[in-house]
Amino acid sequence: MSDTPTFYITTAIAYPNGVPHIGHAYEMIATDTIARFQRLDGYDVRFLTGTDEHGIKMLQTARAQGLTARELADRNSERFREMAQVLGASNDDFIRTTDERHYAASQAIWKRMQDAGDIYKGGYSGWYSVRDEAYYGEDETEVRADGVRYGPQGTPVEWVEEESYFFRLSDFAERLLKHYEEHPEFIGPQERRNEVMSFVKGGLRDLSISRTTFDWGIPVPGDEKHVMYVWVDALTNYITALGYPDELSDLWRYWPANLHVIGKDIVRFHAVYWPAFLMSAGLPLPQRVFAHGFLFNRGEKMSKSVGNVIDPFAITEHYGLDPVRYFLLREVAFGQDGSYSHEAIANRINADLANGIGNLAQRSLSMIAKNLGGIVPEPGAFTPEDEAMLASTDALLEIARAEMKTQAIHAMLNAIWQVVAEADRYFAGQAPWALRKTDPARMATVLYVTAEVVRQIGILIQPVMPGSAGKLLDLLAVPEEKRGFAELGAAGRLSSGTVLPAPQGVFPRYVEPETAEKEG
Ligand code: ME8
């Protein structure tokens, strides 16, 4: 087995009761960026995504459309798989909870929890939200002006009574709190950790973990009248994909996960239920659960009825994939809610990409092409300005690592763009075009330093914009094997004498379609 440290990262698995929306795309892009970052930083990364196909919600949507649940799942799961491809996701696996491997894993973890004495049979009645697929205590619900009772997520609840298996969640409160205390990094961001801790401190009720009112789910081993509560099966996906229960499988070395990336609405499931299930089954806990915020369309919550659900296929087709990836990760502080609008996307594309890194690369590389025969020059002695410029650039890797440790993707991008701005000032201040006649050797040094900054930025932005960063590195003739983070800083400086291809624009401006038509 190799010594390369492993890094296992997952997205939530989406419900394929509808087609993917921009919230799903956002989670995929962010998770993919973290996976790519870790790969470039030398980790042996395993990246999992997939679809969560059981449960009453799937069944009800299917019925309403005159389909079986399996037909609905097959149709929409394929769209999620396509979305991953269209978004350039580098996932190593795509799990469907209807996969055969997942039945075996879910039944195995169930048996482990049962053998540990943590599952018992009882009767259940309570306020159930079909949409959340969760029972709530009476005190968590309220009857609103419309006479309907709602749960804490704002979805309607109804009174349900059924025979059910229970998980002794109430026994785990102490152990969970101890874990949160000893591993402050277990839940991020901080607000979410606080919420979870106060929820658990309030005491935990045992959890109803089986259903008898429908059969679209994984049968409870030894009592097939019951199917597992969808969240028991859904959470198990993270270990199914590593070969569980075969702990001798080659993939099992990736467990425990380093990071589960999820949205803020499903923190309780990942930071309370999931670690309790794992503790019961005697399995190690994931290192971190990070909850991102919600995306809103100009500040409004997306909903199919309002008609403001943004289709990830359409948006990437319209703006291009890398600009969309960049926009979502730069504009929205990861972990907080964010808003998107056409104006904001167009502005980021033009200000940060076309006029920012694009312009810097274009200006410096076209000067090398025109004045130096397209060959990376030999720099002369560095001035304090050159040294300062290179030092700021060389410092980026440590900043990026520190930010990415807490999934602050936006902060990493912000730090990189500060260096882009500094390089713009450096380039304008050194005015290499004015040195062409007066001091060509000095011009060559300034162009060398600028191209070296572009090289490092090209390497650093690969996780966010793999396609455009690749093109940028092609323009600098950086070989494929020299694009990892080990090549950042002084270790990988541009080699003088390298022949560069003809420069091309990598970050086009966004032009409004009507304007483009008129101009075209
Ligand atoms: O929750 N903005 O599936 P899901 C950002 N099957 N993120 C959003 C979002 C939005 N507007 N809407 C949804 C489920 N998400 C379960 C997960 S994991 C074992 C089971 C996020 O299709 C949401 O927070 O409703 C979740 O992380 C993911 O998209 C899938 O949501």
UniProtKB/TrEMBL annotation:
CDD domains: Anticodon_Ia_Met, MetRS_core. A motif ('KMSKS' region) lies at residues 301-305. Keywords: Aminoacyl-tRNA synthetase, ATP-binding, Cytoplasm, Ligase, Nucleotide-binding, Protein biosynthesis. It is found in: Cytoplasm. A motif ('HIGH' region) lies at residues 14-24. It comes from the Bacteria. GO terms for cellular component: cytoplasm. Residues 376-513 form the Methionyl-tRNA synthetase anticodon-binding domain. It is an enzyme of class 6 (ligase). Its EC number is 6.1.1.10. It catalyses: tRNA(Met) + L-methionine + ATP = L-methionyl-tRNA(Met) + AMP + diphosphate. One of its GO terms (biological process) is methionyl-tRNA aminoacylation. GO terms for molecular function: ATP binding; methionine-tRNA ligase activity. Residues 8-364 form the Methionyl/Leucyl tRNA synthetase domain. PROSITE patterns: AA_TRNA_LIGASE_I. The keyword Cytoplasm applies. Monomer. HAMAP family: Met_tRNA_synth_type2 (MF_01228). Is required not only for elongation of protein synthesis but also for the initiation of all mRNA translation through initiator tRNA(fMet) aminoacylation. Belongs to the class-I aminoacyl-tRNA synthetase family. MetG type 2B subfamily. This is Methionine--tRNA ligase.
